[in-house]
Specification:
EC 3.2.1.86, alpha/beta, GH, 14 strands, two-stranded parallel ribbon, 13% strand, 6-phospho-beta-glucosidase activity, Glyco_hydro_1_AS
Length: 471
């Protein structure tokens, strides 16, 4: 094979909480993202106790896809998208999360969105839960520290699987499921109490999410046997700093942190290294026989993953400079350049990641997030010459194609992150832009929300038209 498959899913990726807006419209409830204020590079976003008047919550309006979805999907169609990866806001369907009956107005909104996509021959690729669980479930039940969350989540899953079974073929159960260990608020609604064993709380929540994911897969297949259901992994691509065996072992342990989740979701059981880790750290994680059975039955069809950067691992670090990338801290690779937000740019790392994942699991892969956050400026003629973004994508797509055409990786598609400018999950900023489409809004919430095609818009259009041949 000398070309990508004609069925290759080119598209773009977003998340409901970061671009929809309409936070209190259509019967929507308050989510964990709705109580996060704006931050900045190096400044954490504040989590408030509910929505407080006068605070800046950038997700509340975001870029108002809620009101402008037809305009935006038309732009995606103009670029030639084959698919559009986004999520369903849990709080649009179940505003508090523990209701028995869904919010019809919220369900109708996604009917309209998916119909609009399908009208333009764009396949929806839907993440069921992407950092927007109901805030009520945090206040009332403690979030994913509580096993009752499985019941609430499955009620949500059953509702959307049934409602959209004729509109959505591709599903992912949780976004970046392994983020629960790194930043447990956004995926899990977890705040720690004084004196409690934080590691145990995080891994207990992880277990509940893994069980919920497996049950969701079984449920989804019972409703629509023809649907395809995957996981979504934040990939921690790390290299050993040197050939020192201790550094190599440090890298192995780093990769275990990510692979634990996909090992369970693809292989259907806890890996031995994780069982030993929990034993060594005296973590009381009750794994019942029923849990083991559902984990075995509810394995995923594909692995979706995010890839932005890489780092290096050092067994005995001293003063090496830290590197960041999508909530991951590692050590800087002196051979790589970094983005304006300190994320190391490593196109070959994408090929390496694709090989690592495919060699380990031998199931289809899907690059569902990849991109570079940058400050974009208008030229005098009103254009945005984001050649740095084009260069980033060109190099990553070149390496992605090598993984498929030279290495034999089975890859379903490629959806760059933030295909239209949206609110940064990490910092809450708007000036950290990823999109092919500029949105007129600044960090303080000012702007008309007007959409403008960047130069990368036209470049990606040609890339898709040529099935990745013209890059």
């Amino acid at each position: 094979m000398s070309r990508l498959s004609e069925n290759f899913l080119w598209g773009g990726a977003t998340a409901a909480n970061q671009f929809e807006g309409g936070w209190n419209k259509g019967g929507k409830g308050v989510s964990v993202s709705d109580v996060m204020t704006a931050g900045a590079y190096g400044v954490d976003r504040q989590i408030t106790d509910g929505v407080i008047e006068g605070m800046n919550y950038p997700n509340h309006e975001a870029i108002d896809f809620y009101s402008r979805y037809k305009e935006d999907i038309e732009l995606f169609a103009e670029m030639g998208f084959k698919c559009f990866r986004t999520s369903i806001a849990w709080t649009r369907i179940f505003p508090n999360g523990d209701e028995t009956e869904p919010n019809e107005e919220g369900l109708k909104f996604y009917d309209d969105v998916f119909d609009e996509c399908l009208k333009h021959n764009i396949e929806p690729v839907i993440t069921i839960s992407h950092f927007e669980m109901p805030y009520h479930l945090v206040k009332e039940y403690g979030g994913w520290r509580n096993p009752k969350m499985i019941e609430f989540y499955l009620n949500f899953c059953e509702t959307v699987y049934k409602r959209y079974k004729n509109k959505v073929k591709y599903w992912m159960t949780f976004n970046e499921i392994n983020m629960i260990i790194r930043k447990p608020w956004k995926p899990g609604g977890i705040k720690f109490e004084e004196g409690e064993n934080q590691l145990e709380v995080k891994y207990r929540a992880a277990h509940y999410m893994l069980v919920a994911s497996a049950k969701s897969v079984v449920l989804g297949k019972s409703i629509n046997p023809d649907c395809t259901i995957g996981t979504m992994l934040l990939h921690t691509t790390s290299y050993a700093a040197t050939c020192n065996p201790d550094n190599v072992m440090a890298q192995v342990k780093k990769m275990h942190e990510a692979y634990f989740f996909t090992d369970v979701q693809v292989r259907g059981k806890y890996p031995n290294y994780q069982l030993k880790f929990m034993e060594r750290n005296n973590l009381n994680i009750e794994i019942t026989d029923e849990d083991k059975e559902i984990l075995k039955r509810g394995t995923v069809d594909f692995i979706g993953f995010s890839y932005y950067s890489s780092s290096i691992e050092i067994a005995d670090p001293t003063d090496e400079e830290k590197s960041e990338g999508n909530e991951i801290k590692g050590y800087k690779n002196p051979l790589l350049k970094s983005s304006e937000w300190g994320w190391q740019i490593d196109p070959v790392g994408l090929r390496i990641t694709l090989n690592w994942l495919y060699d380990r699991y031998d199931i289809p892969l899907f690059v569902v997030e990849n991109g570079i956050g940058a400050i974009d400026e208008f030229e005098e003629d009103g254009t945005i010459n984001d050649d740095y973004r084009i260069d980033y994508f060109r190099k990553h797509i070149e390496e992605m194609k090598k993984a498929v055409l030279e290495d034999g990786v089975d890859l379903m598609g490629y959806t760059p992150w933030g295909c239209i400018d949206l609110v940064s999950a990490g910092t809450g900023e708007m000036k950290k832009r990823y999109g092919f489409i500029h949105v007129d809004k600044d960090n303080d919430g000012n702007g008309t929300l007007a959409r403008t095609r960047k130069n990368s818009f036209y470049w990606y259009k040609k890339c898709i038209e040529s099935n990745g041949e013209i890059i």
